[in-house]
Design a protein that fits this description.
Strand content of chain B: under 5%
Helix content of chain A: 25-40%
Radius of gyration of chain A: 20 Å
Number of strands of chain B: 0
Shape of chain B: globular
Radius of gyration of chain B: 20 Å
Largest sheet of chain B: none
Largest sheet of chain A: 5 strands, antiparallel
Distance between the termini of chain A: 35 Å
Order of helices and strands of chain B: HHHHHHHHHHHHHHHH
Number of helices of chain A: 4
Order of helices and strands of chain A: EEEEEHEHHEEEH
Largest interface: A-B, 28 and 37 residues
Helix content of chain B: over 70%
Strand content of chain A: 25-35%
Strand order of the largest sheet of chain A: 1-2-3-4-5
Oligomer: heterodimer
Chain lengths: 161, 384
């Protein structure tokens, strides 16, 4: 389930992102202009107050984000690359005015002509896994593709104007 | 020989200030009030009168004001200013009316002239963006719901200052009504145009100014600020406002790098500014104005608190959050001193200096103390 994230500017400091956690308490991340990131949780005694739970620098927060959310992806990716030196994974953006805009994966005949498989499409911050042949691509989508490096380059050219 | 004396005096002063700053950090308060006390102690009539290096310090103090305002502008992006003003327009208008008004009223009541009263109004109006932002961070309140509103109000105050300072500058020259009107029109047009240009075309200027060679970036930003500040002073716009606008114009990578490079320079020269300002105030002049200062503190603390609490209530914040916001905004600091300095330089009422010093000392120390009584600080787990 996607949670709604509020974005509030903190003039001179940075930006604060907050959302209501599954348990009902507000969690906030303050991203400072300096790159420092602080994590706060809503205080129990006063709904407007918050308690700081973490202070992270840029590197800390990237690593933490990976550990919290991306560890499975990282793990799978490593296994995939390990399986075959021929097989690559790439993220390709469907650019505006590309011939692929508003056409389905079946119409593009990606698989039959290039052997490349689209394993997922990232659209508007959401991940749409295993799109079928009738899935229509739009400009701005990011296609996650698997195939040989040479074939992936051919697909990349298809997604450009 | 003479150069030696100058270096020894300045060196001794700066070295002494390092201990003062260390004390402030240990106590967890802003160093501003402690710099002011140091200046009082060392100046004329103080416990340890010293200083023949006044000329050097005067220039240093002037650069200090420019760096303070340049950094304040650099902290803000143009878009943040516009948005801050938009979200807090109503409370900002009331804030100005009540707190500027209260200061003017008290000043008139104790028999000050109109220009002097306008200076006192400015001193009591402007909360200290630096002190408040640091307090929020130190107390771990950045994630609180009242914080965006407080920061937006500070932004509005800083912008209003950019209009107030030129007006004050023109009025303090004491020209005839006709000439003053012309100068005022020139000054305000210049500020308005420069602000719009800074917000609209700041990115262009910044791209041109930016270089990854740190020396070049530092000299570029600092030199441009001095240049514009000087030009602003020539048309009575006040050097501080010129530097502020340059700071606003600097954005993007240039902003990030300047922030990092200018901070140590600002800390050094701002310390000289606060010390120099109070060096010129004779502590023996404080007792006669003490009562006025206390009245000023009580009245303007009450108006500030009431306005901010009202503003916080309209945002749907609960009573504890309203109290925190109100107390935060009580802190006064750099702006009050910058404004008082203008009044002193113009040779207005001689009570302004000691009054402003006492006022800032009481609120720069009092507000953080009241806040700490509210909630004990909650240190986060730091990985550094």
């Amino acid at each position: 389930m996607m949670r709604e994230v509020d974005e509030t500017p903190l003039p001179g400091v940075g930006v604060r992102f907050s959302f209501r956690s599954g348990a009902g308490r507000r969690l906030s991340v303050v991203v400072h202009h300096t790159g420092r990131r602080d994590v706060y949780v809503q205080a129990a005694r006063d709904p407007d107050a918050s308690e700081q739970i973490l202070e992270l620098d840029e590197g800390d927060s990237q690593l933490l984000a990976e550990l919290l959310g991306g560890s499975r992806v990282v793990h799978d990716l490593e296994r995939l690359q390990h399986l075959s030196s021929e097989l690559a994974l790439d993220w390709l953006v469907v650019e505006a005015d590309s011939p692929a805009d508003q056409r389905s994966i079946g119409q593009l005949q990606l698989r039959s002509t290039t052997g490349v498989t689209v394993v997922a499409v990232l659209r508007d911050g959401q991940t749409l896994p295993t799109p079928g042949p009738d899935f229509t691509l739009r400009s701005g989508d990011t296609a996650v593709v698997v195939g040989t490096p040479a074939n992936i380059r051919r697909v990349r050219d298809l997604l450009r104007p | 020989m003479e150069a030696g004396t100058l270096l020894v005096e300045v060196g001794a002063l700066v070295f002494l200030l390092s201990f003062v700053a260390r004390l402030a950090a240990t106590l967890g308060i802003s160093p501003i009030p402690l710099y002011v006390i140091t200046g009082l102690a060392l100046g004329e009539g103080g416990a340890l009168p010293l200083i023949t290096a006044e000329e050097f310090l005067e220039v240093g103090a002037e650069i200090g004001v420019i760096l303070l305002l340049l950094m304040l502008g650099v902290e803000y992006a143009g878009a943040e200013l516009v948005q801050g003003l938009r979200t807090s327009a109503r409370v900002a208008a009331l804030d100005f009316a009540c707190n500027f008004g209260a200061g003017v009223a008290v000043a008139v009541a104790v028999g000050m002239s109109a220009p002097a009263a306008l200076v006192v109004g400015g001193v009591t109006y402007a909360s200290s963006s630096g002190v408040v932002a640091k307090l929020i961070d130190d107390l771990g309140w950045m994630g609180n719901r009242e914080t965006p509103g407080v920061l937006a109000l500070l932004v509005s105050e800083d912008l209003i200052m950019a209009v107030y300072l030129p007006i004050l500058g023109v009025l303090l020259i004491g020209a005839s009504a006709g000439r003053a009107t012309v100068q005022l029109a020139v000054a305000l047009t210049a500020v308005g145009t420069a602000l719009v240009l800074a917000i609209r075309f700041g990115t262009l200027l910044s791209r041109w100014l930016f270089t990854r060679f740190t020396e070049a970036m530092l000299l570029g930003a600092f030199g441009l600020a001095l240049l514009v500040a000087g030009a602003a002073a020539m048309i009575q716009v006040s050097a501080a406002v010129g530097a502020f606008i340059v700071g606003i114009a600097i954005s993007g990578p240039a902003q990030e790098l300047s922030r990092e490079l200018l901070r140590p320079l600002r800390d050094l020269f701002a310390a000289l500014f606060f010390t120099f300002f109070s060096l010129t105030v004779d502590p023996r002049d404080i007792p006669p104005v003490l009562l006025t200062a206390v009245v000023l503190v009580v009245v303007t603390a009450a108006t500030k608190y009431a306005v901010v609490v009202w503003g916080a209530a309209t945002q749907g914040l609960g009573p504890p959050a309203r109290r925190r916001a109100g107390l935060l905004m009580l802190a006064r600091g750099e702006f009050s001193i910058i404004i008082a300095e203008l009044g002193i330089a113009a040779g207005l009422d001689e009570r302004i200096g000691p009054l402003a010093v006492t006022y800032v000392l009481l609120l720069a120390v009092g507000a953080p103390l009241l806040l700490r009584l509210q909630t004990p600080p909650h240190p986060a787990l730091s990985l550094s």
